[in-house]
């Protein structure tokens, strides 16, 4: 039997509570939560640039659904090379199916057709489908126009990347969740000296958290400079 | 007894597993399993929804499941068999599926049966002829809510006639056209109308993929006769997206025979496709020619008036008030197909619902901002440098040079500020991309442009123009 090297990992800390909701993302979050509760749209398509938070939202949706005793599956299509398209069979019987990075299968005929079939079956059932991509559905470079138009059929939202002000607020919120105190000045310092995409900033925060714990020191600019070697 | 074992033994086992594994593992891999205890075989069956889940469970959880069951049974557990499949289960979401219609059984006893059995994989056609039929019809797709326009007039009229005289008017009816233009809606509408007229009619809607999957399963399980009997017993076969038969020779062969059988028996066949039959590559000539025996009608993309009417109709179905001028605004901008139009309307409705604001043109412009402008282009620092250089009629190499004259420095500062605004690069990275400058230079440029935009209308205009050029 074929081995399964795949590691489908859902981050424990990627919840709706830890997602900083900027003003532009308020509606999408409300719509998404309603959908998972079985009240709103059956199919939601989220799209955004790298670091905008699509994956976080999909992980959060899984946690949210699990808390409500719903059966969920999360598939990172970025790893489709390690998966078989047959994996999608039967998943429409679940309560929530989250497919991350649909753009990753663009041009792969077998996967596109499998996803097209999966979509059709989802529509015949009550399963909620949440799909993410790096571009608006109509702009995805899919070979199957049928699939592209179907993804554009449900409600779709752009996950807006955070502005610098939002990033500062998001960093502070994340720090608070970790029991860390992060001043505005320090957040601004990180923003002006480090990679500014949210992924990188949150990874830096995690690194600083560990460093602060092991050194038993508060976060200060000199300490941060020392840890990050900048 | 069987239910008891399933509920108590498996229920207790689930409690253990829930404690031992993370919620995610439990919900993703274990909860989808369905259990059935067959008393006659004294065997416990666990069904996984697909091969992938089955393998995963076998590798990661099966041993532990066996251990727990053994403990719970005091060392004398029933054998455990893991397989792909499903069993009837009472589980339901809160809202009932609207797509499943009730169908009447094949015999004349007029018993109404509901297709409530969840199934994994292809249809269970091994059922006896008088067993549950699933029409798969979506009852919300009717002629009443199908908006007619020049683009679909003929297809609608033909479909209506077919629904009034199934098997006689046009057989087969072949509807073709681009994606998202309403072919499937029309097909369901015919099916629903046939059912409304003749309660005993057996109408079967399916995507061509389902036919292929069913056939593959029948071949694997040596049940081709059951397969044939199932598909040849319907009064109307509605088969969607026939183009997916291309290149699947064995399926085409089988469909050819089913097609002939149904046609000879004056049963109705309706097919949809994304192109004219003769243009389907990978489809046998004899099928292409047969598809054209009845009536072949095209659906074109809807014109503006139809798009407006579609939006108004959908809004009415969703019970929202959509002013005509707003529908016109959306319809004018989203032109490709009905699905995209509906997708846009869904977004507008969601925004109105969650913000409580009235639907106006300004509201829609904001709600659909990204869809309308599709600011999805990937903006790179190089692209910004090139665009800014062109805009100010300087060379990119000047922007990267050490020259400090205002005619060069200002565009350079502008490009830096735009790079900060439109990309996720760090300030040191931006500085590096501008001829190896320090991050403080970038910071200074950003502040400078910010203050100049506030002070100078010319510069504010430049900034807005460049933002627009780069993000559309």
Describe the secondary-structure layout.
The complex is a heterodimer of chains A (230) and B (472).
Chain A: H1 26-36, E1 43-47, H2 54-67, E2 72-76, E3 96-100, H3 109-124, E4 128-133, H4 145-151, E5 155-158, H5 164-177, H6 184-193, H7 198-215, H8 221-228
Parallel strand pairs in A: 1-4, 1-5, 2-3, 3-4
Chain B: H1 2-20, H2 23-30, E1 34-38, E2 43-48, H3 51-60, H4 62-72, E3 80-84, E4 103-104, E5 112-113, H5 153-164, E6 173-177, H6 183-197, E7 203-207, H7 208-220, H8 224-232, E8 236-240, H9 249-264, E9 268-273, H10 285-291, E10 295-299, H11 304-317, H12 324-333, H13 338-355, H14 361-367, H15 369-373, H16 381-392, H17 396-400, H18 406-422, H19 427-433, H20 439-455, H21 457-471
Parallel strand pairs in B: 2-3, 6-9, 6-10, 7-8, 8-9
Antiparallel strand pairs in B: 1-2, 4-5
Helix pairs in contact in B: 1-4, 5-6, 7-8, 11-12, 11-13, 16-18, 18-20, 19-20, 20-21
Query: What is the overall pLDDT average of chain A?
Result: 89
Using the coordinates above, name the CATH class of the largest domain in chain A: Alpha Beta
Tell me the total number of β-strands of chain B: 10
Overall SS class of chain B: alpha/beta
Q: How many β-strands of chain A, per DSSP?
A: 5
- Helical content class of chain A: 40-55%
Shape of chain B: extended
Tell me, briefly, the overall form of chain A: elongated
Number of helices of chain B: 21
Radius of gyration of chain A: 19 Å
| Nearest-integer average pLDDT of chain B | 83
Helix content of chain B: 40-55%
Determine the number of helices of chain A (DSSP H or I, runs of at least 4 residues).
8
Find the structural class of chain A using helix and strand composition.
Answer: alpha/beta
Proportion of residues in extended strands of chain A: 5-15%
Largest sheet of chain A: 5 strands, parallel
* Low-confidence parts of chain B: 88-132
